Protein 1
Amino acid sequence: MSELAELRQRLARIEDERAIERLIASYGPLVDSGSVEATAALWSQEGTYDVEDWQMRGRADVAAMVGSDAHQGLIGRGCLHFHGPAVVTVDGDDAVAVCESVLVVRHESRNVVARTGANHFRLRRIADRWQITARVTRTLDGDAGARELLTTGIEGR
Amino acid sequence: MSELAELRQRLARIEDERAIERLIASYGPLVDSGSVEATAALWSQEGTYDVEDWQMRGRADVAAMVGSDAHQGLIGRGCLHFHGPAVVTVDGDDAVAVCESVLVVRHESRNVVARTGANHFRLRRIADRWQITARVTRTLDGDAGARELLTTGIEGR
Amino acid sequence: MSELAELRQRLARIEDERAIERLIASYGPLVDSGSVEATAALWSQEGTYDVEDWQMRGRADVAAMVGSDAHQGLIGRGCLHFHGPAVVTVDGDDAVAVCESVLVVRHESRNVVARTGANHFRLRRIADRWQITARVTRTLDGDAGARELLTTGIEGR
């Protein structure tokens, strides 16, 4: 490979990783502001979001979650889906990312950490844009499944 | 554009975004350690900081906030201005960034989430250094203004 | 320096900083999933970890901490070592990084912010991989030492 081609490849890798980091860092602000369409657009057409007792498939399902009474109620009281820095592993047009999160909800003028989260993302480059094809979020309550999301995510699996 | 010039441009864009990410990630450590001058230096000469009931204009105002009895009292008890990863949009010498945050304050040997924050930054490259020209921080308590900071920030407005 | 050599140098700097950011962002997921070996491997052979009343030296000590009854008890109840974005300063094969953190622990079905943290890292490139040679973590409870970790970390000292 020429020196220039090698630089181009290294740069492209950083751009890919950063695009995914940005996508994940956008989730909290979008979902906490109740941005229905923009949140849904983070997922691919058939992308899934499995969060505890809520199973979504496709953008319409994600949009419905953001627009739901349950979520809009959280926003009305004040909520923060606070996500830490993602660790991203890119392999061609596929990627895996992982991060931790807390959900802070306002309750009677106090802020309560309602939930902690282990977040595992599968992403795919579709139509030149990274999109979530599968996200799984689990509470860190000692459950082995939640811990497994973290280890596989760090390993890029 | 030559191939080399294009690579240079892409690299410069990443450097700009990273410089701003670093600036924002520095805010918490600086303000929690009570670094008066270094915190103020994140702002431009006439930069503003509008946080709830506190309106600051210029570095002297930011320095006064960090040095104030109110803020030094927080530091003395123990506080953490914990900011998440920023989403940055650069347009030439101007930029917009957004991130979420929590303020954790120690209170009678417990740590209380005293406030959640939506943070919207306008920045400008001045004398070859990115500086905050306007920061607005609002509590996420259901208020439409706070939610608007998040959506405009993600859109780079 | 040729134009190409200069681009290469700037790119390498970003790669170094990002490798360290990734290493630090991996700590929480690894320690919260109880990954004994992978957590220990973030440190150098003789690397130290000084966290409040726990002094570790070498990977075996870090591994022992992760595997300890105290830490496994935290994981069993549910814990989140939530770290914010790191500010990294690289100087050749040495680096300094700083970030803030909170430890959230599940306690009787509530999530408690058990500790806030100022985290100062010294790292070294050894065998072509960044490794922690010294980490110091202190609670932000008004203590001058904790605040000093933040200021020196931001200054890259």
Protein 2
Amino acid sequence: MTKLLIAGTVAYDSLRTPQGERPRILGGSALHAAVAASILLKQVDLLSVVGGDFEPQYLDFLRERGVDLHGLKIIKESKTFAWNGFYEKDLNTAHTVQTDLNALTQFDPALPPEYLDNELVFLGNIDPILQTKIFAQLPARKFGALDTMNYWIASQKEDLLKAITLADLLFINDAEIRQLTGEDNLFRAARGLLTGRLRYVIIKKGEHGAMLISAERIAIVPSMPLDEIIDPTGAGDSFAGGFMSYIAENGVDWDTLRAALVYGTLTASFNVQGFGCERLAAITKADLDERLKVFREITRIN
Amino acid sequence: MTKLLIAGTVAYDSLRTPQGERPRILGGSALHAAVAASILLKQVDLLSVVGGDFEPQYLDFLRERGVDLHGLKIIKESKTFAWNGFYEKDLNTAHTVQTDLNALTQFDPALPPEYLDNELVFLGNIDPILQTKIFAQLPARKFGALDTMNYWIASQKEDLLKAITLADLLFINDAEIRQLTGEDNLFRAARGLLTGRLRYVIIKKGEHGAMLISAERIAIVPSMPLDEIIDPTGAGDSFAGGFMSYIAENGVDWDTLRAALVYGTLTASFNVQGFGCERLAAITKADLDERLKVFREITRIN
């Protein structure tokens, strides 16, 4: 498994954080995950949709990173999904000013023939019905992971619970898993979800780190300490992209999943050090390895 | 330094958690810290005050744990400081029903002669003016740590900031350090406090773990994952007591402080597995060592 299928949104984000603002920069769950995964992987297959306003320079940007665009549908007569939002001093909460779904309402999750051989798939935050449809088209799939958000928990809980049972791994944040399960204890909440195919839950806790939970085991890593967060948008998606790229290279045994948890953490730490994906797009595996040394020193137990 | 001076409150706690309720059980910042520290140490000097209603069985309990009571003043005509509170499902927030200061209003921080040789001191959450007075009586002091709470930050910020500059290490939780400094980034908040004698800040994040921060270095540990929290009361105090007992035995170089951070974390994890200090009082160093093995496996980075 040295390639990875990533499905989700590609967006224009207009955002404001305490560190500044940016109009119409590249965003979206699949975009952040793909930029992250392409640090390690030579090929990432992108399944998403954009509008006629999507700039050709961004297509070039993605192609140059090894992102295959056979599955990026461009709907000329529509516009790219656009999110407008801001963060207060508390960077953990995104406030939405406006969401224009635009082309996203026509997202057809049919995979192009070039993508059907994918063994590894990450489904970023989109309608869980679409996530289920994508899983159904991947007979060769060995490992599939799924992310979601509070919106789908509130509006399509049953669809989401079905999609989750088709995944091998669920990415979810601490507030979301409590909302989804009604269980306050995160370990009990995660283990209560392990039915169907689902074997692993990764709970993302933002500045507090992340936890990987299986029926028998737990791994916990803190976040990378940073003096300044420029823009938290896409942190979870880049975390997932980094995590998935690591297992694409190294396998899915427990120790590799543990190491991928660290790799995802470090990937996300670069993501939040710039607006959109600008910082992530500028780093290499060597930068991640360098930061890993610092991280080891911070987290080692004598 | 194989003994430790602990000052703070000894209380009767009447509390309710989602797991049950207990009237008038042993509590208080110094009590939880002393019970924790006496797992490792043969002698802990306790400086506190109680009322005539304090039961002799509790004095015996403390003496049997090696807690020296020369500094526990019993004010016959008063009552023991009493806290009545509860926790909702969200165990991170204690809700106070009633606080009766009682004997605590007459807390005279004069050290008995037997305590004047202490080189290591932990000042649990009490009036920062009292904390300052205790530091002033310890010419042999090599390392002093101080804990506080939101009440003092709101009501006596200047007194507290003065007491902090006299300490070597500050224990504080994430909400409190943000309240105290007005700085949202925890690393910048901690480093901004490092003036006077203060060299280390430990930020306690409850279920999210703890961080040790100096001018140049950072150590981060997650919390021990637990399927059930019985009673979070005294978690921070037992953390501090466990931490301080570890450095009493092993020194105050950076690597020992790091290891103490883990030791404090594990001590607190036992504290919250029973009401008041009942679970903590029942464990030995062997139980902590056993849990350390599990914790290492959960937190190791390949």
